[in-house]
Design goal:
The complex is a heterodimer. Chain A is mainly alpha-helical. In chain A, 77% of the residues lie in helices and 0% in strands. In chain A, helix 8 runs antiparallel to helix 9. Chain A starts with a helix and ends in a 6-residue tail after the last helix. By secondary structure, chain B is α/β, with parallel strands linked by helices. In chain B, helix 6 packs across helix 14, helix 11 packs across helix 12 and helix 12 runs antiparallel to helix 13. The termini of chain B are far apart. Chains A and B meet through helix 4, helix 6 and helix 11 of A and helix 1, helix 4 and helix 7 of B.
Chain lengths: 270, 346
């Protein structure tokens, strides 16, 4: 079986089909209920520190008027793009290599599994010592956070590959390079893409921690800066809201990769 | 097109686009000459607290008088980050807690204190409804300090000692100053103490009450000092001298009239601290000697006292002394240092 054969078996049913109304209405209802509970809770407790949703909206408008929101979003996206891209371009081949060469896996896996659970926040002091407080330090932290999910998923993808693909390929007498290019990589791709999707989520997740380093732009910086600014918790929450919304957009974007036939066959059973 | 090519091409194009946008919006790529000049200048670390006020004030006045600042102020959010940026060599000079600088010297870091940043400027706040009215009432209470190396900790240590108590009679927490007001508001701690304006904020917002101001229990209290790397002292003497002179003159300018304090509150909160100007105005004027910026020379006796308290409080080893961690050679005769003649544009 190969990717294109599998793709032709599962017709692209959803493409061009109208999205059912419930998929728009239900999330909207949940969002409205969430905002109402938030607003009600702040009013009930009479807190004058925690902002109401409208105050957060006004905070976001203030940031737009000052021309800061665009700048901060660009800065955060810049750092996440570089950290994440480096992780993809280095982590994928590294993971594939580990999955394919057993001795390499035996050698590196314990180190990877030791480094993987260390939070990027713990790396902050090291990052500042190594890179000062330029853009490199946050990029490094985001790279670290996203490298491991990608490398590990690529490794697991090769490891867990059906032996039947390999045997069939060997019967056809493929060379090692052909085997890798035509069989192993396509077979591992769906799982790699899943890893990439998780990694992008993690990369965006650590942007606040990464920007705790004294950079002077970015959505994470906005949150730190608002804490320094006294009673500006509306801006703290505004930063959180923007991070959440952009995270949602990024996830929707990466999901588009799953539409490709070479990836979709891996999700064929859903 | 297959998924791999689409993905790679999209990432490459996106990376190029976002890099240019970020460079344009945040890194000043639209004015490379200015950026190159800024890169060459000495970077000085500071926090948005009144203890470091002379840093932005000197920079702003320099810039207004001469068109460009002598140095590049870099704002941080906490002392650990400042310390690490200094250790990495990114910062050649910075404002820092005096005991932290002394401790770094003890650890062998080539750091020298060249000038003070301010005097006084710390308060210990309790919740307005609390039953703490005297320092003795702090017994068994939870008190937040910014850092173990903060002079605020030494201040409590001294205040308790003077009353026959010890630091073990209270429960100490380390909490970043920006988080202190919220902690006091929710009464998750009983008392907070750090540099301003975070203490004044609790007063301004109506839930904090001053238990003591530093000037009442340790007059001429020193919390933050200007430290410089020994390499910069050797190789950039002129720049360090200009910096120290600038701080001396801007300090005197701030203390000259109450109007200068209000002006400083305005331009510093807008251009450097990103805080509500009313907050800085409040700290700098109510009362005006809550924090002061004159008389910033280094006195051996004062540092000996900090040393002694630091050792007693267990944060210093007592292996470094004034001549090791201080270099008073940049301090000029006080009379020579006249306040800047300058008024902030309306």
């Amino acid at each position: 079986m190969n990717a294109s054969a599998s793709a032709s078996l599962s017709p692209t049913r959803r493409r061009g089909k109208k999205i059912p109304a419930s998929r728009i209405v239900l999330p909207l209802l949940v969002a409205v209920a969430f905002l109402a509970i938030w607003d009600g809770a702040v009013r009930m407790t009479g807190s004058d520190l925690f902002p109401k949703p409208m105050e957060v909206v006004r905070g976001i408008i203030e940031l737009i008027e000052k021309g800061l929101l665009g700048k901060y979003i660009a800065a955060s996206l810049f750092r996440v793009t570089w950290g994440f891209s480096l992780a993809v371009f280095l982590g994928t081949p590294f993971g594939l290599m580990l999955g394919w060469f057993r001795p390499a896996r035996d050698a590196f896996n314990p180190l990877i599994q030791t480094l993987r659970p260390i939070s990027p926040i713990a790396w902050i002091p090291v990052a500042i010592l190594w890179f000062g407080v330029s853009d490199v330090a946050p990029v490094f932290l985001i790279f670290l956070a996203s490298f491991f999910p990608i490398a590990v998923s690529a490794m697991a993808a090769v490891e867990n590959m059906h032996q039947v693909y390999l045997r069939a390929a060997q019967n056809f007498g493929l060379t090692r390079l052909q085997l890798f290019r035509l069989v192993i990589f396509p077979a591992a791709l769906p799982q790699i893409i899943t890893g990439v999707r998780i990694a992008l989520g993690v990369a965006w997740l650590v942007v606040v921690a990464a920007e705790m380093i004294a950079v002077n732009s970015g959505l994470g910086y906005l949150i730190i800066d608002a804490r320094n600014a006294g009673k500006r918790y509306d801006l703290v929450v505004a930063g959180m809201v923007m991070i959440g919304l952009i995270g949602l957009a990024l996830d929707l974007l990466v999901r588009q990769l799953e539409r490709f036939d070479e990836v979709k066959w891996g999700y064929g059973n859903r | 097109m297959n998924v791999r090519n689409t993905f790679v091409i999209t990432i490459l194009i996106w990376t190029a686009v976002i890099t240019v946008v970020h460079g344009w919006l945040n890194l000043g790529w639209d004015d490379l000459k200015r950026r190159a000049a800024a890169e060459k200048r000495m970077k000085i670390g500071f926090l948005p607290v009144t203890c470091h006020l002379t840093c932005p004030v000197t920079h702003f006045i320099n810039k207004n008088i001469e068109g460009e600042g002598h140095f590049e102020p870099v704002r941080f959010s906490g002392f650990p980050e400042i310390k690490e940026a200094f250790l990495s060599g990114y910062l050649e000079a910075t404002f820092m807690l005096a005991p932290m600088a002394m401790s770094l010297r003890e650890e062998g870091v080539p750091v020298k204190i060249v000038y003070l940043g301010h005097r006084d400027g710390t308060a210990l706040m309790v919740h307005k409804d609390s039953r703490i009215f005297r320092i003795e009432d702090l017994r068994g209470k939870r008190v937040a300090v910014p850092n173990r190396f903060s002079n605020q900790r030494l201040l409590i240590f001294r205040a308790l000692r003077d009353r026959g108590m010890s630091i073990d009679d209270i429960e100490l927490f380390e909490l970043p100053p920006p988080d202190m007001p919220a902690a006091l508001y929710t009464e998750s701690v009983d008392a907070i103490t750090s540099g301003e304006p975070f203490m004044a904020q609790t007063e301004l917002d109506g839930y904090g009450r001053v238990l003591y101001l530093t000037k009442d229990i340790w007059p001429n209290f020193i919390s933050c000092v200007l430290v410089v790397h020994e390499d910069a002292i050797k190789n950039k003497r002129d720049q360090v001298q200009r910096l120290v002179d600038g701080i001396a003159r801007s300090g005197k300018w701030i203390d000259q009239t109450i109007d200068h304090r209000i002006q400083a509150a305005g331009f510093v909160s807008k251009n450097y601290y990103n805080q509500d100007p009313r907050l800085l105005e409040f700290v700098l004027s109510k009362p005006p000697d809550r924090v002061t910026y004159s008389n910033l020379q280094l006195y051996r006796k004062e540092f000996a006292e900090i040393e002694e308290l630091g050792v007693a409080a267990g944060i210093l080893k007592g292996t470094a002394h004034f001549d090791d961690y201080a270099d008073p050679s940049f301090v000029r005769e006080d009379a020579e240092m006249t306040p800047y003649v300058w008024e902030a544009p309306q």
